Protein 1
Amino acid sequence: MIRVSAEHGLEVDLGGTRIGLDDYRGTRANYLFISHAHGDHLGRISSSTPVLSSDETALLAAVRGVALKVSSLADAELLPTGHILGAMALRLSGDLLYTGDLCDRNRGPLLGFDPPKVRTLIIESTYGSAEFCFPPVEDVMGVARDAIEDCLKRDIPVVVMGYALGKAQHLELLLAGVGPAYICPELKRYDDIYRLFGVEIPPKACLANRKDKGLLEKGPWILFAPFRSGRSSFNKYLERRFGARLMAFSGWACKRGYKEAMAVSEAFPLSDHSDFEGLLRVVKRSRASRVFTTHGFADELALHLRGIGYDAQPLPRGQRTLNEYLEGD
Ligand SMILES: [Zn+2]
């Protein structure tokens, strides 16, 4: 029997073995499942609890200062979700699938998530509202590349911003050959691990190196940087000192007013997640008879799924227990 509860974050009971999922805050789990190495999943990990994760996630966590005691468990299978390097879903007994963050589109070296058939699905719903419809990556990047090249031609440098882990590496691949290009030090450790696993990110000078500090003085450039608001002192400096344009890449760019709210010059809808239709495709392909939604627009996605005939429930944070939903399984 598999039971799911959400008293201290999500926990699955697999025949007496308790597995805490991602940002689990309890103390009684026998194992933790860490779907990927984004910071919101690495905050509360006890160093003594065995962890189910990919090698990539363990290495990315290590450079963030979090040691994972990687282990394995019979009946627990990890399946790549296409979100960032090493991101995995967890399938238990071939019966329950917890997706963690996912992207069902192929993107460079990452293959889109293709869910197996399961009875119970717990799916992330970061963009689980119909307002999130991402255009094809080629279209977004065609417009972005034209805008960047136009700036460089006019001697205007460009700051290309996305999450330091995952989005930044994808952007570096998509904009390979445009330049001269530099990176902020926050990206370097992740770039190096992507390369270690065979992803060929073009090498670049890093602004952390003393000898490279003066590079920005020499004409137009692209700087790959972690996501920061245009109001941050770093970006204000780049705008004031070099006349740089700030370009942000995020799924949230679909929302009206996002560019103004983030105080950037341009915002492009490029995401490491599936959009609304993508999440529906994953649910359909899994052929699950019961669906739980978690994170982001969990209520909206579950409501939509119920409207098209699924047995679907959101898993809001702080809910005490979900056992009643699974009684009789
Ligand atoms: Zn993530």
Protein 2
Amino acid sequence: MQQFFEAVRALERRLTAEAERSLPPLSLVSPERMQEQLAQGLPLLPLVPPVLPAEQYFRDLGEYRALLCGYEPALVAEMQAQERALSGADVGLLHALLFGENDVVYERAVAMGASPERLYFLGELALRPYLAVYAERLESVVNFTGYRGGRCPVCGRQAHMGRIDADNVKHLHCPACESTWRFGRVECSNCGSTSPGKLGFFTVEGDEEHRVEHCSECGHYLKVINQRIQVRQVDLLLADAATYYLDRLAEREGYRKGGRPVLA
Ligand SMILES: [Zn+2]
Ligand SMILES: [Zn+2]
């Protein structure tokens, strides 16, 4: 998977340049209204929605499908089925992917005979170049420094990784638009718990640089790079893929991204 994500990075360089050209200028609301949204811990995406070129987006999605097939030949048949089902510009599905309407994505995937997980996965990958351009444009006009929410202030995704800097300040990182924002050093990014009795972390022997922070209040875990151990430039997309063994360990301990599933 590491090689796959390195190839994703290479593809993104071209698609981000194309997104830069095709994404229309943002139609902003007043700075006060945007700050108000952030003060409530809410992302700006629903308030200042980007207008994505649907046809181009679905063409991009095809490029990610082809890339995935190169690394997982077993998926070729499924990817061909997805391609047939997704021909054309499916504005409704793009909207659902962009705004995280997971039940809509799930239903559409099942209806087209595709794996919902893989449709989310590829759909998010294909959104990344657009969301990166969108985030960059917002960051040039909005001040995010006071934001302390657990979800991305730009697009509302849950952080996939955190980073503790040499000065002991923690930042969270968005897996979609790649924004980073400051967050409580001892705080659960899912439920907001700050209770030291509920929050803990583990590391794997010999690798103090990576830790898994977990919360017994909600069952959420977050992988964190501890830059107090070693300061270096880290690509968090690749670091996430390189540390899947930590996800497996966290899951074995009963933790889940987004917290424990609610049992019926
Ligand atoms: Zn984001
Ligand atoms: Zn929690």
